[in-house]
Automatic annotation (TrEMBL):
Transmembrane segments: none annotated. Keywords: Signal. Residues 479-498 are annotated as: Disordered. Residues 75-415 form the Solute-binding protein family domain. Residues 1-26 form the signal peptide. This is ABC transporter substrate-binding protein. Residues 489-498 have a biased composition (Polar residues). It holds the Pfam family SBP_bac_5.
Length: 498
């Protein structure tokens, strides 16, 4: 949805700048010591942590979880200082002492159980709990038992999701609504929510960790990309989410920072019906694709050429990847007709389809394109109606782990198996990866599963997307997080205005 401010921007840039400036100056004391941030999307559920709005609370460092993830995706302490797996379905978490919620109440096992129970009862459930039955109970004032119906080696990772942030009891209403105002544990306390317009946070002086370096955060929602870029260019914002590629050339290079995303554009090839059930023709497509041309032409160089399903947002993937040798010899296409499909909701994908069609035609295929809105094409793609489908796909979901994505897309029973793949070697590799505990063994098993998938030529990874983040010159230590969980932290600071 476009806000009135964003519509003004398209025709009256100066008016927009004035409006943004007045918005940021509202309700501020000592504005020079406050971070002004422009967010891409307004909240959809009143900033409830049980929705996708949870990622805003996380990016503002106001709501915290029991566990956090490091750069490798391994669980690390946050509100829980330690955890133990007592048996296949039961974990014990020890809580950090002397933590206060923003309303002054202490962090206790009772508060944690109440927050996790509210998440399990939410309608709809938080995405991180899809297919998971979870029950929390106290085991003393500072420890919690979490039980799952089925063995879940990823439970600590799951509890790192911003959708399972722990808020004070007062946040949870009897009607299932959650109000995060003054209810978190982070270095910033959410003090004011102005609907889908703005939000304001102040430093929380009784934070359990190091005190925040700025007095507060003033967040404004600006869906229009030109407007967000204007806010950075004119100095009315300190940090800006998701700058459009088209605006980058208008900004000083020092203010623009590219962050690799755990999102891969992949060409899925139908392994069950049509000409591409022949693995040798899938190999021909694999070898015909010029990834560098796609990156340079469509993305203006602001993406990464794919070497596998997992990209630079997971830095360990490249270090563990070994060259994949497909057992299938590449065939020489003889004019076989294939349907190449994608969706128009992401502006780059139809352009990628045009270039890919050209490359495959040059390789000897006859290519017909089918481009529609995602809502109109998803069912046909999942039903296997297309020979080839271009998809922009998140490779790590809320747990920070790629096994769920791989299982969904490439297992026999996968709910998103566009390639219609059912391969015994892939099944065995995915099963081993799913059973492994987080850490080096799981990462090795994940890369073995990636190799098994790529050997089938059911998927041709094309490129890994980046998000472009804007930061004013006076900003120090803003987070550039591929998972988009962190943005402004207690360590983020502002130098004096030049």
């Amino acid at each position: 949805m476009t806000t009135p401010r964003a519509r003004f921007t398209a025709t009256l840039p100066f008016a927009l700048v004035v409006l943004l400036t007045s918005c940021f100056q509202a309700d501020q004391s000592g504005a020079g010591d406050r971070l002004r941030v422009v967010m891409l999307q307004p909240p959809r559920a009143g900033l409830s942590p049980l929705s996708d709005d949870a990622f805003k609370l996380s990016r503002w460092s106001t709501a915290e979880t029991l566990v956090q993830l490091d750069a490798d995706g391994d669980p690390q302490p946050l509100l829980a200082t330690a955890w133990t797996r007592l048996n296949a379905t039961t974990w014990r978490f020890v809580l950090r002492p002397k933590v206060q919620f923003h309303d002054g109440t202490p962090l206790t096992a009772d508060q944690v159980v109440h927050a996790l129970t509210a998440a399990t009862r939410a309608v709809p459930k938080p995405r991180i709990l899809d297919g998971v039955t979870l029950k929390a109970e106290e085991t003393g004032p500072h420890a919690v038992l979490v039980r799952t119906q089925l063995p879940d080696p990823l439970l600590p990772n799951r509890l790192s999701s911003p959708q399972l942030a722990i808020l004070a009891r007062k946040a949870y209403g009897p009607d299932g609504q959650v109000n995060p105002t003054g209810a978190g544990t982070g270095p910033f306390v959410l003090t004011d929510i102005q609907g889908t317009t703005s939000a304001h946070l102040d430093r929380f002086d009784r934070y359990w960790g190091e005190q925040a370096r700025v007095a507060g955060i003033d967040a404004d929602y600006v869906p229009d990309g030109t407007a967000r870029a204007a806010a950075l260019r004119t100095g009315t914002a300190d940090v800006v989410e998701a700058l459009p590629v088209s605006q980058v050339a208008l900004l000083p290079p020092a203010l623009v920072h590219e962050v690799p995303m755990p999102r891969t554009n992949t060409l899925y090839l139908n392994t069950t019906t049509g000409p591409l059930k022949d693995a040798s023709l899938r190999a021909a497509i694999r070898d015909a694709v010029n990834r560098t041309s796609l990156v340079n032409t469509v993305y203006e160089g602001r993406a990464d050429v794919a070497q596998g399903l997992l990209g630079p947002a997971l830095p360990w993937a490249a270090t563990l990847r070994t060259p994949v040798k497909s057992p299938t010899v590449r065939a020489v296409p003889q004019g076989e007709e294939i349907t190449l499909a994608t969706f128009s909701d992401r502006a780059e994908l139809p352009e990628v389809a045009v270039l890919l069609a050209q490359q495959l035609t040059q390789a000897g295929f006859t290519v017909r394109q089918d481009v529609r809105q995602y809502a109109q094409i998803e069912a046909d793609a999942l039903a296997g109606w297309f020979d080839a489908f271009i998809l922009s796909r998140a490779t790590v979901l809320d747990s920070g782990d790629p096994v769920a994505y791989m299982t969904s897309d490439f297992s026999c029973a996968g709910s998103f198996n566009i390639a219609q793949l059912c391969d015994p070697a892939v099944e065995a590799a995915l099963k081993r990866a799913a059973a492994a505990l987080p850490g080096p063994d799981r990462r090795a098993a994940i890369m073995a599963a990636e190799a098994a998938i790529l050997r089938t030529n059911a998927a041709v990874p094309l490129l890994h997307e980046r998000v472009i983040q804007g930061e004013a010159a006076r900003v120090d230590a803003a987070e550039r997080d591929p998972r988009e969980r962190r943005l402004l932290t207690g360590q983020t600071s502002l130098s004096a205005d030049e």
